[in-house]
Design a protein that fits this description.
By secondary structure, the chain is mainly beta. It has helices at residues 112-118, 214-223, and strands at residues 6-12, 18-21, 33-35, 41-43, 48-50, 56-63, 71-73, 82-85, 90-94, 96-102, 105-108, 123-127, 140-141, 145-148, 151-153, 160-165, 170-171, 176-181, 184-185, 188-189, 192-195, 197-199, 203-209, 225-228, 231-234, 245-247, 265-270, 282-284, 289-295, 304-314, 319-327. A hairpin with a 2-residue loop joins strand 14 and strand 15.
């Protein structure tokens, strides 16, 4: 006679389920399994495993090898009179939940490419429900974004404070999920700072001619060109020209609404601090210099009128002629 081992079904306790977060292995979680047999048997979960390591539902539970026996007697010996049937066991592996925390960063104005790259790399991650098991190193796709006043801001980035948000940043695997993206650490909001770029000051002298009035002198500032960081730009993009003053050599301010011609000479544009006004993307090493040179008017033939001979004398050797000369300019 040959007596075959009896096959017994392994079942779950009522209401129990086999479920775990992804940990990179097919190991079963801590769960109570039971069998019905002619004697008390225990289940050794170490020789049972999920049929796969990755996230999924209704995953089969199977023996670690075809000849393995997960059944033990009450005394802990292999239950050789029985074979286990785990076919009714199904389980779930859920995505590993991650917490992502952006790092605080500082950049200089103009480093747009560097900022764009940092938005894909400059963050820390950790398991939300405990430390990640050794060997788990998720990779990420997409990018964080920067915001100001809760609105997304895109490159190019002006100098100022920005606040990172998750954007399209995601884990490049179904085995993970970003369940929390932190925006504060210890109650302080995480901030990225774009500081003004320090550059050499400009030294520019604009040219004008006598006959220009105060109002027109100020109007020149709206179209004036200066060189900043190697690029020629309008003065109005660097400073708020409406708050700049123009002074003569005696420190007298030129009237912004003046209609009378200003005298020839050198004028200085004042209120030019080292830090630019408005959008403060640049900071000069020293205060820049902007002057306006009002040149004397060069009289043309049309400006000079001759009135002819007024009288003449002759002393025997030379004749002297008296001529009246007048000129008009600007009416």
């Amino acid at each position: 006679f040959k007596i075959e081992p009896k096959k017994v079904r392994i079942v779950l306790d009522t209401g129990a389920k086999i479920e775990k977060e992804y940990d990179g292995t097919a190991n079963l979680p801590d769960v109570t399994l039971a069998v019905t047999a002619y004697e008390t048997l225990n289940v050794d979960k170490s020789v049972l495993k999920f049929a796969q390591e990755n996230v999924g539902t209704d995953i089969n539970v199977e023996l670690t090898s075809a000849d393995a026996n997960c059944l033990k007697t009450a005394s802990g010996e292999p239950a050789t009179n029985y074979t286990a049937d785990p076919s009714e066991l199904k389980g779930t592996i859920t995505p590993r939940q991650l917490t992502v925390t952006p790092k605080a960063e500082t950049f200089e104005y103009g480093e747009n490419d560097k900022i764009t790259t940092a938005l894909t790399t400059e963050f820390d991650y950790a398991g939300k429900n405990g430390d990640l098991p050794s060997g788990l190193t998720p990779s990420f796709t997409g990018s964080m974004v920067l915001t100001q006043s809760n609105a997304e801001v895109q490159s190019p980035y002006n100098a100022g404070d920005y606040y990172p948000r998750q954007g399209t940043l995601a884990v490049n695997s179904n085995n993970y999920e970003i369940s929390e993206f932190k925006t504060t650490v210890n109650g302080t909001e995480i901030k990225w700072v774009v500081s003004p770029k320090t550059v050499d000051p400009f030294d520019v002298t604009l040219q004008a001619e006598y006959g220009i009035n105060g109002s027109e002198l100020y109007a020149m500032l709206n179209t004036a060109k200066v060189t900043v960081d190697g690029k020629e730009v309008n003065l109005s993009t660097v400073y708020n020209v409406n708050v700049l003053d123009i002074e003569d050599a005696g420190k007298n301010k030129v009237s912004r609404t003046g209609t009378d011609a200003v005298n020839a000479g050198e004028y200085t544009v004042t209120s030019l601090p080292a830090t630019t006004l408005g959008t403060a993307n640049y900071e000069f090493k020293t205060a820049p210099t902007l002057k306006i040179n009002v040149k004397p008017h060069v009289l043309a033939d049309a400006d000079v009128q001759l009135s002819g001979d007024d009288g003449a004398t002759f002393d025997g050797t030379e004749k002297s002629v008296m001529v009246k000369v007048s000129f008009t300019y600007g009416g």
